[in-house]
Design brief:
alpha/beta; 5-stranded parallel beta sheet; 22% strand; disordered N terminus
């Protein structure tokens, strides 16, 4: 395979074209959108753990004009007011917004996203988008019927490290990929275990879904999914807090591990891809540290081990792409059919399908 010159390699700094696009997307958009009309966006809830941070991103974005937040919870309303976000009714939110971010409790995601789509608005819905496949199919059908965008909020879809690994796989630089190993953990406060225990999949459904989303992007539809969901914490509840899902593909396997029991200050999160001509590991995922190891020089990379310099901030690139798609400048990275596949696989990995 033809490689870049040393000058080109220095210019790329070991990044693939896809990674460069992800890394630069936010910066380019900030200058390019300065002269564009801001897109009216509203938030339907902010009680999801990602909600307030996404609200901050939107309030600082040159792409959007915040209509306001519709939130019944008093504590959450107070936090919104402290940030300077206007509180609005659901009617005002749906009338004035072109796009709505659904950042409420997981149980409400599908129902509220349906309201948004039925009102003829685009929707960014926090993950998981639904608790069953029927609701997800309804969301997909509504988005197609209304000709509106549906974007699910999996936080690493625009991660430059994962996208560099994905590009290396698609270009054949890793050879035949035969194994993905990935882990996502947290230390869930005891007071929140009841909230996550609402779903049979426990923390695999609420947290491990990020790994499922990334794995489906890499390997597509698995031919089998085997979940191992366990409660190993010393609590008097049924919350599945220590889990593994094994996904089998035609010529590859993926082993996804998830726990909410880690007693450390920094969560152990990693994503590793092994191929016949090279390997890649992103660890930690945040802040990102990506390492490749190739049998021979390929694309912009050298033979052997190397570290790829990366910068990353959650959520920014998601909303940059959403704005571009709303303006007709590009399509969303994940299609509606792919969203359905991700949801189906999340439910299977969570023992909920």
């Amino acid at each position: 395979m033809k490689t870049h010159t040393s000058t080109s390699r220095r210019s790329f700094l070991g990044l693939t074209a896809a990674t460069l696009a992800t890394v630069s997307m936010v910066g380019i958009a900030k200058s390019a959108t300065a002269e564009k009309t801001r897109l009216p966006i509203g938030f339907m809830g902010v009680t999801h753990s990602h909600g307030l941070e996404k609200l901050k991103v939107i309030m600082a974005s040159p792409d959007y004009e915040l209509v306001g937040v519709c939130e019944p919870d008093e504590a959450a309303r107070t936090l919104c007011e402290k940030l300077g976000a206007k509180l609005v009714t659901q009617t005002e939110l749906l009338e004035r917004s072109q796009v709505v971010a659904v950042e409420s409790a997981v149980r409400d995601h599908a129902r509220q996203a349906m309201l948004v789509l039925k009102a003829g608005k685009h929707v960014h819905v926090e993950k998981p988008a639904a608790t069953n496949l029927e609701d997800m199919r309804t969301l997909i059908a509504l988005a197609k019927e209304k000709k509106r965008l549906l974007q699910c909020g999996y936080m690493w879809r625009y991660h430059p490290g994962l996208n560099a690994m994905l590009e290396a796989m698609r270009q054949g630089w890793l050879g035949d990929v035969f194994l993905i190993r990935a882990s996502i953990v947290n230390s869930l406060p005891a007071v929140r275990r009841g909230e996550w225990a609402e779903f049979a999949g426990g923390s695999m459904f609420e947290l491990g879904s990020h790994l499922v989303d990334a794995t489906v992007r890499f390997l597509g539809k698995p031919k089998s999914v085997t979940p191992f969901l366990r409660r190993h914490g010393r609590f008097n509840d049924d919350f599945k807090d220590n889990n593994v899902a094994v996904l089998e593909f035609d010529s590859a396997m993926a082993v996804l591990t998830n726990t909410s029991l880690q007693g450390a200050s920094t969560p152990a999160r990693a994503f590793e891809v092994l191929g016949t001509r090279g390997s890649a590991i992103l660890q930690p995922i945040e802040p990102p540290e990506l390492k490749f190891d190739f049998l021979a020089a390929v694309g912009p990379y050298q033979k052997g081990r190397q570290t790829v310099p990366l910068t990353y901030r959650r959520y920014e690139a998601d909303f940059v792409e959403l704005a571009a798609a709303m303006r007709g400048e590009r399509a969303l990275t994940v299609s509606l059919d792919q969203e359905l596949l991700v949801q189906e696989t999340v439910l299977r990995a969570s023992g909920m399908l």
